[in-house]
Automatic annotation (TrEMBL):
Signal peptide: none annotated. It comes from the Bacteria. Residues 13-100 form the Rhodanese domain. It comes from Amycolatopsis pithecellobii. This is Rhodanese-like domain-containing protein. SMART domains: RHOD. Pfam families: Rhodanese.
Length: 110
């Protein structure tokens, strides 16, 4: 696989970016970054039109593998995408906010 653009969580701009989470529904529901866009990796080709075209795109999964594949596909398809190194595990470990879709449940990264 070709090298994809990568940034650490600490290198992400604070605003005016789209964070695309490509994890599965159960992972998203358990815990995700507030304001992220959720499109599971397998659905990305069919749903790519849902992504805003006017902001830099940072792609995240659990640890960086799926998001690297999504980033490579997006860039080959004409998007300007960057893989988030370490994924949601790094996001959470660095103290960034995580929210859950499960009522009353403590957010967690699956």
């Amino acid at each position: 696989m070709n090298q994809v653009p990568t940034a650490s969580v600490s290198e992400l701009p604070a605003e005016n970016v789209t964070l695309l989470d490509v994890r599965e529904d159960n992972e998203w529901s358990a815990g995700h970054a507030p304001g992220a866009v959720h499109i599971p990796l397998g659905e990305l080709p069919a749903r790519v039109s849902e992504l805003p075209e006017d902001q830099p795109l940072y792609v995240v999964c659990r640890s960086g593998g799926r998001s690297a594949r999504a980033t490579a596909w997006l860039n080959a398809s004409g998007w300007d995408a960057v893989n988030v190194d370490g994924g949601m595990k790094s996001w959470h470990a660095e103290g960034h906010p995580v929210v859950s879709e499960q009522a009353g449940a403590e957010p967690e990264i699956l």
